[in-house]
Amino acid sequence: MSRAKVYLIRKFLGVGLIVGGTLSPALGQTAKQETPLLIAGTIPLYPRMALAAQIQGTVKIRVVTDGKRVVSLEAESGPPMLVKAAKDNILTWEFGEHKPMTFVTTFEYVIEEPAECGFSNGASVLNLPLEVRISAKGLKTCDPAVAIKPHL
Question: pTM for the full model?
Fold first, then answer.
């Protein structure tokens, strides 16, 4: 991915996350615990290999920050292929200055009804840094030979 695209994604996420982060309460956490404001990161996508293998499920990861970045990750649950994708995404996160803390992030991967022949990027719903829902259309295999009829 080019630097320009990464910059635009970061800029988009930074603005969107500031607005989203200030408007929605931290679901799944205690009312007293505040979560850090995510200011940069990449958009999570459904891993193509997991989609092709029809792997879906919920991934829970314990995240430890140092006041700016993620310093450690520990998977609590989830399919290994999806755990890896979630961890890779979390490692791109950068936060606004905050007190070092630990929190649990939940990534939900869902496969929806099949798309027409091929891959689809699907959708990502972000309530960062606590919840991420990634959906993708299932794969519909298409055999072009079926549509071809021999000329007699």
Answer: 0.71
